[in-house]
Design goal:
This protein is α/β, with parallel strands linked by helices. The chain is about 30% helix and about 20% strand. The strands form 5 sheets. The chain has a 6-stranded parallel β-sheet, sandwiched between helices. The two termini are about 25 Å apart.
């Protein structure tokens, strides 16, 4: 694992041929636009960067997702969307023959994806399904979860579209698919397989479909988006417009660390300076500096951008942690980009 961030002398939009872009917290927030997202993605496309929007949401059809993005000023086709429902169906096909029965507990997007994969959608555990595909849908109730539990207890393979415990909405965070899956696990004692992030399945499907050679993952959550990038061996850009903060990045375990750090999607259009190690344990980035002394993070410098102190802090904290002397979290402040 890297002990510092990567660097790029050219804008990331020029260094990569495909961006795998998360939705909530990156392209939009709930039903609201995120500042600079549409303009930055449009400029990146103009520079030659292809986009695929990759989401753990399995309830909606790709056409619906594409329509929302287009309405927010990000023109998108359905073929530029990769959902956890599609990844879930692909995972099911690794073990199930065409026509196998699958109890789908989720929204229309998951039902369509399972059917399109050549599997038979059933609605009851009494149909003896070979698998249960479970994804989030706002209308799911006790009877749906009970039906899933009956099937799993009867030997059906349990596959979740994702295991996100929370779901960002315009009013805050609500229970996500992982919370609903947890109810089935509590009833059956059977742990499911998962197709969504942090599994790299969706990333690999999108990269293969696009024939990309230099993909870049863009996300706001270290534990899903960036963990999936690490698991798949793809470089990842962490933008600070969603769930995980710059402080979270500083304290990130090796498997969750991004390769690049940016305040928002304008980071696609900029070079990324690489933090450099210097005397007395200081790590510097564009005039900002950080080091860890006796477990305490120290910050210094007067560089032009707040993001550079966060980059220097990541390098210092990761180097210390990988050397066996992790930083004390109480000494790490919230870092504004």
């Amino acid at each position: 694992m890297t002990a510092t961030l990567s660097g790029s002398d050219v804008p990331l939009a020029a260094a990569h041929d495909l961006a795998l872009v998360d939705l909530d917290g990156v392209a939009y927030q709930g039903h609201l636009p995120i500042p600079h997202a549409a303009d930055s993605l449009t400029a990146a496309r103009t520079a030659g960067l292809r986009l695929v929007f990759v989401t753990n949401n399995a309830s909606r059809e790709p056409e619906e997702v594409a329509g929302q993005l287009t309405g927010l000023g990000i023109p998108t086709g359905a073929d530029e969307v990769m959902t956890a429902a599609q990844a879930c169906a692909a995972l099911l096909r690794t073990r199930l023959d065409p026509g196998a029965g699958v109890l789908v507990v989720g929204g229309p997007g998951l039902r369509t994806a399972v059917a399109d994969a050549g599997l038979t959608v059933v609605d009851s555990a009494d149909d003896a399904p070979e698998a249960v595909a479970q994804g989030y849908a706002a209308g799911l109730g006790w009877s749906d979860l009970a039906e899933a539990a009956y099937a799993v207890a009867g030997g059906a393979w349990h596959v979740a579209s994702n295991l996100d415990l929370s779901l960002p909405t315009a009013r805050g965070f609500a229970p996500g698919n992982g919370a609903l899956v947890g109810a089935v696990v509590a009833a059956t004692g059977v742990e499911p397989d998962s197709a969504g992030k942090p599994s790299p399945t969706m990333y690999r499907l999108a990269v293969d479909r696009a024939g990309a050679e230099r993909p870049l993952v863009i996300g706001d959550r270290l534990d899903t988006d960036l963990a999936g990038a690490r698991a798949g061996g793809y470089p990842g850009l962490h933008v600070l417009t969603g769930v995980s903060s710059a402080r979270d990045a500083v304290l990130a375990a090796p498997g969750l660390r991004p390769d690049y750090l940016g305040g928002d999607l304008r980071a696609l259009l900029e070079p990324h300076p690489r933090p450099e190690s210097g005397p007395e344990g200081w790590w510097t980035c564009e005039g900002r500096a950080a080091r860890v002394v006796d477990g305490a993070l120290e910050l210094d410098g007067q560089g032009p951008r707040g993001i550079d102190v966060a980059r220097a802090a990541c390098a210092a904290a990761w180097d210390a942690a990988d050397g066996g002397s992790p930083v004390d979290p109480t000494t790490v402040p919230e870092l504004q980009a």
